């Protein structure tokens, strides 16, 4: 989506390199940091993952 397009643009124009620890602003989404992906590469994380459990699944059932 928006963040991946922004990161792609910044890398293509040389504004960021994708090095661990590098920070950048992604327009209206704010500031992000490039992190180690644990497999020899890097990544930018949009936010924490959703965790679906028996206790919270009803909160999500109507939205998806």
From TrEMBL:
In terms of superkingdom, the source organism counts as Bacteria
* Protein name from the UniProt record: Uncharacterized protein
* Species: Candidatus Hakubella thermalkaliphila
């Amino acid at each position: 989506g928006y963040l991946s397009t922004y990161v792609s643009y910044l890398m293509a124009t040389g504004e960021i390199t994708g090095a661990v620890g590098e920070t950048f602003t992604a327009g209206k989404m704010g500031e992000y940091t490039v992190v180690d992906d644990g497999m020899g590469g890097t990544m930018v994380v949009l936010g924490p993952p959703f965790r679906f459990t028996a206790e919270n699944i009803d909160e999500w059932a109507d939205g998806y």
